[in-house]
Specification:
The protein folds into 2 domains: 163 residues, no CATH class; 127 residues, no CATH class. It is mainly alpha-helical. Strand 3 and strand 4 form a beta hairpin. It has a 4-stranded mixed beta sheet with strand order 1-2-4-3. The chain is globular. It is 56% helix and 4% strand. The N terminus is likely disordered.
Length: 365
Amino acid sequence: MIYALLKKIIICSIMIPFQNKVSTVNSLRNLRHIKKISIVFMMLVLFGACKNKHQEIDISNIQIDQKFYRFDQDLFTIPQDSIWDYVPVLEEKYGNYFDAYNNLVIRIGGTNQINYDEKLLHFLSDPYIEDSYKSAQQVFREVNFEKEISEAFKRIKYIYPNKEIPDIYTHISGFNQSLIIDSAYMSISLDKYLGVDSKFYKMLRTPLYLTQNMHPKKIPSDVITAYLLTEFPNTIENPTLLDEMVYYGKIQYVLDVLMPETNDTLKWGISEQKLDWCSNNEQKMWLYLIEHKLLFTTNVSDVKRFIDEGPFTSVFSKEAPAKTGRWIGYQIVQSYMRHNSNISLPELMESYKHQAILNNSKYKP
């Protein structure tokens, strides 16, 4: 469509100057028309220049072997008066995942314990746990996140053909971990995504800056972000603030490639207003870090102030979102990839020379 429009614009631009015998009024109208066309042309060129070339991935022929399992339903629908009869079925179907769930999530120990059934029954029959499971069934009855997750993993397969693609499970954790990650599977704690206004989060007094991202639409970007953080950990010992900024900037850059149609507010977990604040104050934030010589600090509290979750970045403003360091790091990585078009995504992720990335980014907010 864009190329057809460009062709039309070029034809119009060529033809108009050679029109003869027109009135002065018509000539002025034509000139105004040319100006409008030129503006449109420039906008299209700018649009093309800003587009991330790595996002142009055709996944129509990419096949992955990824399955989705509702473990939460399989577990909570077993008859509570005959748990031992159904445990072998769950063990056979879920294997190592079932063991990890028992030991690491609900922490009742393995099925080799004599009183395992009593502990599992205590968990399944807990009024709050039962209520959260029922709430999850209502919330996720019509919410479908499978397509968005699968398409992102197809892009991963395109970029990294040898990567193992994990199956996706869902579970109830008792409001513990949001995600469980293993090389063979990822499991989503549905009770951590019941919605901003969930009564459970109010009862647990969960901070607002956390509950604003505890809703179903946040699941796909959380899954892919968690996958990237696991597959590409920051291996730098005693990292500087710059190291952390660029590292998370790389993660966010690849997330954009894998989820090009997902709204930025979901990928960042920040409102549109907060993202606008970052854009409008980018130069001021950068100058603050330079003037206070913070880029190369390894002080943990200083680093956490700009990288970790929170209600806001206090040194900037209460209007500033948390994780502003990650946002600036993302701008650096974007600039680096624009000025170094020969760098592939695997090369970007394999490089931990973060100061070199900054130096070669030509970043000037």
